[in-house]
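Continuing the series of single-chain predictions for the mutant panel. This is the parent chain; the variants come on the following pages.
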Amino acid sequence: MHQSAHPPKGRPGRPGRPRSVATDHAILDATRAALVDVGWGGLTMGEVAARAGVAKTTLYRRWAGKSELVVDAVAVLFDELELPDRGSLQADIEGVVLQFGALLARPETKTALMAVVAESTGDDALRERIRQAIVERQKRLVLLGRSRAQARGELPPDARGPEGEQAAECTVGLTFDVIAGAVVHRLLVSAEPVDAAWARRFTTLLLVGLAGLEP
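Parent structure:
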């Protein structure tokens, strides 16, 4: 899968010294690798800097600490997810569910995501960073899939006015929550595979529910 061309931003760099995309990727790669090897408790900014081949000050110019760094290291992986047009809403959802499952099955994704989510349970600021860097960004997939389905006539257009906008936003958020929650639970809690058969059954169930939500 491709790397995101725009890795998540931490703290702004010094004026006159533009950030290096290659350095950003090296740091984020090193962060995930270190988490797999040493876990959250053993992860330090110094460990990441050594693995990435940069000075520790380079990390602190970009991120205030390891929590921010790990969130961005996870977020850039989720940016790899795409929603190719497969001709129908059913096929589109099945495709992204399988992609999401494959992404979560990777040790670096699984370890980093579970570590930062666990840490966020006692850190409201970290939870908000996760919401902005991962959840809000990845709702783009639901928005795109819903827009395509409406253009194909598979879903009705949004109702006009503020109430219609509010209903559409609620549907997008709920759809994202259901997909993300089901796949994460399936793989990381139940330790069951997200394969083509499961994705097909899950998508069928989801579409039945969406039909009841749409006006």
